[in-house]
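Researcher: Go.
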Amino acid sequence: MLFGKHEPGPKLNAYVGNGFIATEIGSDSVYLAGIFNGRNVAAKPTGPSHRARIPSRLNVNVSNAHKCGSALSMDRGVFYRRSMLDARIRVEQRWFAHRVHRHVLVHQITAKQFSFEPEKKNHFDQHRVKMKNGGSGANYTLRLDSLSGELSVDLDCQSTSPHPSHTVTRCRTKIPESIGGAAHRACFGEGGVPSPGRVS
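Model: Structure:
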């Protein structure tokens, strides 16, 4: 487990992937194995061939919480980010690429409210504070910012919404790798980012 109080920033952030799909934490891009755009030549403007950029929907920040730490589990392939909404609400975000369902990138958010109660070890010990789940019943708002960036210059895409909270996007690369060759095709689905979310 690698961890620290601050994330290193662009070009030094961790990656999560499974050999088929991957993204950099904090990036607005996702890349798929085998999806290339551009001629297989060195000369521009049609070349060189390169991995087609897919806009990421996993670059989500909790804008009204203060980041207090992050970690990369090398064993599980999970990146963690913890933030504090205030002294009682801890927010944890997790990013990972699924090990079995290789087409799936996951972003999870959990929020826990804590109550602080004094606890005695024995008759002679001083009180110490224990964190325990549960709280006063007050509501708190999580403001989620989705920073997916601009549309991809590598893909022509069409989106449909079969459900109000889900979007399906079908894409094809703009320039085949060889003259007369077929364009690469990809399809991805995403769940919407709720804003604002409430914790009680």
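Model: Residues 120-134 have pLDDT under 50 and may be disordered.
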